[in-house]
Write a structure and sequence with these properties.
Layout lengths: L8 H5 L2 H15 L14 H14 L5 H6 L4 H5 L6 H18 L5 H16 L5
Helix pairs in contact: 2-3, 2-6, 6-7
Length: 128
């Protein structure tokens, strides 16, 4: 039987410092992506801060997002933005590159990407 060393993915990957590195890497890509730039604000500072709060909670860390903003309701919060299958794929590509750049190790990288993929699929709200 394998020993469980961490209570959550958040703990296993190094907590908020690692989440911040992922978010920084991710948004450096989003800021240059032609499909994503139109649906993000010019200044990504607040968006990145909220993403850090969300991913912290999403991967088992403190529930800071919920404490500040209430229930995530991600689909509802994203309805104003046309999220097409191509934009979903672009978002996932940026996130996958960020996970790789930060060096998230297996099995956590795969589990994180699978959870993010499910969420990204749920966010789509506009056909091509």
């Amino acid at each position: 039987m394998q020993e469980i060393r961490h209570r959550s993915i958040y703990d296993a990957i190094g907590g908020v410092e690692t989440i911040k590195k992922i978010v920084d890497s991710f948004y450096s890509r989003v800021a240059k992506h032609p499909l994503l730039i139109p649906i993000f604000p010019e200044d990504l500072t607040e968006t990145a801060r909220r993403q850090t709060l969300f991913l912290t909670q999403f991967f088992g860390g403190p529930r800071a997002y919920e404490a500040e903003r209430g229930h995530p309701m991600m689909r509802r919060r994203h309805l104003p933005f046309p999220i097409t299958p191509s934009r979903r794929d672009a978002w996932l590509d940026c996130m996958e590159e960020a996970l790789n750049e930060v060096g998230i190790e297996e099995p956590y990288r795969t589990v994180m990407f699978e959870k993010l993929t499910l969420t990204a699929n749920h966010m789509m709200n506009t056909p091509e």
